[in-house]
Amino acid sequence: MSRLKRKNYGGGHAYYLDGVKVDGVTTLIGDGMRKKALENWAGNETAKYAVDRWDELAALPPTDRFERLKKARFEVRDEAARRGTEIHHYAEKLLHGEEVDVPDEIRGHVEQAVRFLDEWQVAPVITETSVWNERGRYAGTLDLVFTTPRLPGQVILADWKTSRSGIFGETALQLSAYENADYYIGTDGEDRPMTELGITDTWGIWIKSDDYVLYPMERGPEVFRTFQFVATVARRTEGRPSPLMALRGEPIREPAVAS
């Protein structure tokens, strides 16, 4: 059996290697990079919520009003994450030839995922599997490794994105972390060397409600080094357990006594 265990809870998950928690790839990227677009989005969503519910909020006590506004952007974010997870779920089932009953609210996205699979005659090598890097103490779950007769000899590691804003450069860091993992969990539940997949390309696949767009993502040693830098920033500033010390030390309880 694999040394890595993924534990799901609520809307999230965590990874444990030999029983010890390790960092998730997307968490490291989220904590180690400034995302100006996300900062602007958060402010805009809060303002939009306030304007759309002006009278309703005005009738509330100030503290309740504050709590509603504070949580507004997270409600939007969680709904988008839920929709993205559903689209991933149906896309994977369709990839394996299963029949699905798709809710109307995401039908367009799923139809575009099917269109991509059909037009590129996608042959899955492995889907939705966890990977891990021992020295880097990180883990993650890749979406898809596939081949296609349209690109003979190429093995593509891809990540689905369903957000309104599309594919950002940080997706290259995410895919590089997966590609440079030591192991992936095979269909038999055993750890297998990541290198045996023979990945030659990494793609970001943006699934929209009325179209899909494929983006080749930069890969190679420099991209992986950038991910490592980002992971280091995340760990040092957040004080995560890592081979590096956090920037903040333990509190000084007593003044030093001169000898």
Explained architecture:
The structure is a single chain. The chain is an alpha+beta fold and 259 residues long. The protein has one domain (21-238). 41% of the residues lie in helices and 24% in strands. The protein is built from seven helices and ten strands. Strands 1, 2, 3, 4, 5, 6, 7, 8, 9 and 10 form a ten-stranded mixed beta sheet that branches. Helix 1 (25-32) packs across helix 7 and helix 2 (36-52) packs across helix 4. The longest helix is centred in the N-terminal third of the chain and has 34 residues, at 62-95. The chain is globular. The termini are far apart. 26% of the residues are buried.
Number of helices: 7
Q: How many individual β-strands?
A: 10
Helix content: 40-55%
Distance between the first and last residues' Cα = 57 Å
Shape: globular
Query: Which percent band covers the strand fraction?
Result: 15-25%
Low-confidence stretches: none
Alpha-beta content class: alpha+beta
Order of helices and strands: EEEHHHHHEEEHEEEEH
What is the number of domains?
1
Mean pLDDT over the full residue set = 89
Evaluate the radius of gyration.
21 Å
Largest sheet: 10 strands, mixed
